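Support request from a user on the community tier.

User writes: "When I paste my structure tokens into the form, the page sometimes reloads and wipes my input. The last time it worked, I copied everything first. Here is what I submitted, just in case something in the input itself triggers the reload:"
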């Protein structure tokens, strides 16, 4: 019988496992193995560490090793509104990093006394009177393990959430497609592209060493065609897309209402993107993963087992305010008229470029 089983060793699950008391019997499960750059091992990501995530690392007393950072470090975003044909630059304070190395670094920080099962997939769970039976599959072998607490940290398409809270309203799910291209020039900015013919969310270009990432968060219907249209438009803007290295796709959540966020009840909890936490305006998710996992770790360590449910849900209510601010900001980015007005006003933009 485990005290806690965590499904998912992304930033949320790894941070929770790292912080949990050594007195607890903890099992961390992931379908990845964090050994090398394979398609399954690498989480699809823009690899930009936002100021909110940097603040979380400061609060956690952690500094980022240099080896995780990649060139170039960028100080501006070029925002292109293809519907209104406006281009502006804005100052930004992101760190450009390698997502595979980042996840591996977080995973490697987990102490040895936490049991880890890699290459293992969570397939379902069953609530018993005083425990939860967790079903796992590893190399075609099915197994069942018992735990007092189950934590879903398994990201945007969470199987734990599907197993335990499927009836709960889910955030809207987009399909994000991201391609890597060889590039001969180093962009001194990254790009955010708005075009409602492609998506009601946004698309991006991010330079990484001698490549560029071209990505978009797309409505699931017709996503592939829309991505092709984006590439045609970017070629017309002068981007050289002749040297494709890889194409990948995954789901990304976009909570429109706070009621779509579910932290779990009784003894099955959700942290990070599995709960629905991610910025609905920028799709930044790492700060939310670190925040929710840190809060849950503190509660599990310091409170009575029976109170975890109530205190975790109460503590996470503080997130509602942050999410509400993001919902207020969203129309200025995604409403055609408001975005046009904001961009034309040049408010907050970098002048002289
Ligand atoms: C294209 C794209 C670009 C993004 N860019 C950025 C960015 O630049 N900056 C930023 O802050 N955020 C970005 N995000 C969001 C960010 O990646 C996520 O919000 C963040 O990774 C959430 O962390 P997490 O730990 O909750 O989940 P994840 O990082 O998704 O980790 C989930 C873990 O669970 C494992 N898992 C899933 N299902 C199972 C299962 N059934 N059994 C076992 N293991 C399982 C996975 O292997 C994974 O290790 C981006 C997202 C996408 C899709």
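"...and here is what came back when it finally went through:"
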């Amino acid at each position: 019988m485990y005290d806690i089983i965590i499904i998912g060793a992304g930033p949320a699950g790894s941070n929770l496992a790292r912080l949990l008391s050594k007195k607890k019997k903890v099992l961390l499960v992931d379908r990845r193995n964090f050994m090398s750059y394979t398609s399954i091992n690498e989480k699809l990501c823009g690899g930009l560490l936002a100021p909110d995530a940097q603040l979380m690392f400061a609060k956690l007393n952690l500094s980022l090793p240099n080896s995780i950072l990649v060139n170039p470090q960028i100080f501006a975003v070029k925002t292109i509104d293809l519907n209104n044909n406006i281009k502006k630059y804005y100052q930004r304070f992101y760190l450009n990093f390698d997502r595979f190395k980042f996840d591996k670094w977080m995973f490697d920080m987990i102490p040895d006394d936490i049991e880890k099962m890699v290459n293992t997939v969570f397939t379902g769970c069953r609530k018993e009177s005083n425990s939860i039976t967790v079903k796992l599959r590893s190399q075609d072998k099915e197994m069942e393990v018992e735990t007092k607490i189950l934590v879903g940290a398994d990201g945007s398409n969470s199987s734990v959430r599907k197993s335990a809270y499927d009836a709960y309203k889910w955030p809207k799910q987009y399909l994000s497609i991201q391609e890597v291209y060889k590039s001969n020039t180093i962009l001194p900015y990254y790009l955010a592209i708005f075009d409602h013919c492609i998506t009601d969310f946004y698309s991006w270009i991010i330079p990484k060493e001698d490549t560029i990432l071209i990505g978009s968060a797309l409505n699931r219907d017709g996503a592939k065609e829309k991505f092709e249209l984006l590439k045609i438009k970017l070629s017309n803007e002068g981007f050289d897309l002749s040297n494709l290295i890889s194409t990948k796709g995954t789901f990304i959540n976009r909570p429109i209402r706070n009621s779509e966020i579910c932290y779990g009840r009784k003894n099955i909890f959700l942290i990070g993107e599995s709960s629905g936490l991610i910025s609905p305006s920028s799709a930044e998710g790492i700060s939310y993963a670190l925040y929710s996992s840190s809060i849950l770790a503190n509660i599990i360590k310091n409170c009575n087992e029976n109170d975890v449910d109530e205190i975790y849900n109460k503590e996470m209510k503080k997130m509602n305010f942050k999410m509400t601010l993001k919902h207020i900001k969203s129309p200025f980015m995604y409403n055609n008229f408001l975005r046009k007005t904001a961009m034309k006003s040049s408010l907050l933009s970098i002048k002289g470029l």
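Agent notes: The reload is a front-end session timeout and is unrelated to the input. The helical segments are 11-19, 51-59, 99-108, 159-165, 223-236, 286-302, 308-334, 336-345. Residues 7-13, 29-32, 43-48, 50, 53, 121-122, 153-155, 159, 176, 178, 215, 250, 252, 272-274, 278, 283-286, 289 surround flavin-adenine dinucleotide (CB under 6 Å). Escalated to web team.
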